[in-house]
Amino acid sequence: MEIKSRHHLRSDAADEIRKALAATLGVTVEADSFETVELEAGDWEVVLADGDPLVLYLDGEPFVTVRGANALSPDRRVVTVDAGAIEFVSNGADVMRPGVVEADPDIAEGELVVVDEETHGKFLAVGRALTGGSDMVGQEGRVVESIHHVGDDLFELSV
Description:
Largest sheet: 6 strands, mixed
CATH class of the largest domain: Mainly Beta
Number of domains: 2
């Protein structure tokens, strides 16, 4: 994935990103510069924080990328999967209820979430909750629709 152009964000726009991520995910983005990037291909609206693709906009809302989640370690809107789900989620599969070992009970259906794995706590994907967090652990059914995952074009973006 190639970058077509880069544009610095004004400080008030950067502050909006910081506030939104603190409110939704409980993270603090400490960066001196924020830039939006236009990509040659793809639908991603990506924000570089000190040159790293840590933020993307989904439905007009700033959220972390997988790299951003691993750098910032969110403690809200987290869905944790077991070792058996890692390969599937890392390849872009939706998260299925039997693979979920824990989920933030405050997650509401339709919200953006980050998916991590229980053994090492590494984040694997960003997705949209198909059910509330308190209903994610169980026997069958999809609970998170995958949007962005380890190894996809956005994850491989180099700047």
